[in-house]
Amino acid sequence: MINKDKFKKDLKKRRQARGRAKIFGTQIRPRLVVFRSLKGIYVQLINDETGTTLASASSREVKGRDLKKTDVAFKIGELIAAKGIKVGINQVIFDRAGYKYHGRVKAVGEGARKGGLKF
């Protein structure tokens, strides 16, 4: 019998593989990848043609201990948008990495849109 946690991880990896098979970032329109952990949230703009990270942001860069996790995620979205525009990127492909589009992942997307990125 398969362990319940292992089964969940396998399902997540399958969701990631299905999503990544359809998504490919370029220099003009890179992939906006979200990684969510229990403590923080990390976002990167990735060019898949060259395999390079163009810009990144994490919850460690946001000041303020009294903020909720979704508020921090929204600020991270705005921050990655500012960094992307500074590098010359205004269109991205949103890669939610197998996570549901709600909560912190949705907050990153909304923050990036408010910051000026187009999906």
UniProtKB/TrEMBL annotation:
One of its GO terms (cellular component) is cytosolic large ribosomal subunit. Coiled coil: none annotated. Pfam families: Ribosomal_L18p. GO terms for molecular function: 5S rRNA binding; structural constituent of ribosome. CDD domains: Ribosomal_L18_L5e. InterPro entries: Ribosomal_L18, Ribosomal_uL18_bac-type, Ribosomal_uL18_bac/plant/anim. GO terms for biological process: translation. Keywords: Ribonucleoprotein, Ribosomal protein, RNA-binding, rRNA-binding. Belongs to the universal ribosomal protein uL18 family. This is one of the proteins that bind and probably mediate the attachment of the 5S RNA into the large ribosomal subunit, where it forms part of the central protuberance. HAMAP family: Ribosomal_uL18_B (MF_01337_B). Part of the 50S ribosomal subunit; part of the 5S rRNA/L5/L18/L25 subcomplex. Contacts the 5S and 23S rRNAs. This is Large ribosomal subunit protein uL18. It comes from Candidatus Buchananbacteria bacterium RIFCSPHIGHO2_01_FULL_44_11. The gene is rplR.
